[in-house]
Fold this protein.
Amino acid sequence: PSGFLPEARTIFAILLSSGGLFSSQIRVSMPTSRIILRRSLMDENGDDMSTCRAIDIIIPIYRNATLTKRCIDSILENIQEIRQFSPRLLLINDSPDDQEVNGMLDALAASNHDVITLTNTANCGFVKSVNRGLRISCRDERDVILVNSDTQSFEGTLANLVDAAYSDSQIGFACPRCDHAIGDLQNALQMFNRLR
């Protein structure tokens, strides 16, 4: 349904690193009100869960400074939605020889105290870059939102995602559906009969 994320044309995933098992049935609720976000941060006993762990937003980056800057700017424009989780951006540069990306990341880190940039010594690939960020987040006992560097965040995206992820202690992973470029929604689940 299109009500999951208003105007969402982005891919986000949040991984809760609290050590619990992933739920076999993930219930995702995407209310649009920030009041609902605060209200839903209560556990089943009514205890306030707003003291949940801090959140890192990990963005692995490979080339394309223009798209990457648009992505990071859109996150920074909306980061106040999850300010109570002390969010910080971990930008993993996987294109160390790209001077345009290096300059853009240096400028962002210099002007934002919540932005940490790490540059791989050589191109390692997406998975190794993500794992580098995850090691830091796990060490610091922070939950993680993983963002592709060619995406864009809109108002309500971060708040809705965090609200859904924290709405049930059994949720270990939440990922909203997103739009294809032509406007229809991507499938949220794909079933494979066997792996080859």
Notes: The chain is about 30% helix and 15% strand. The CA atoms of residues 32 and 160 lie 7 Å apart. Residues 1-43 have pLDDT under 50 and may be disordered. The longest helix spans residues 65-78.
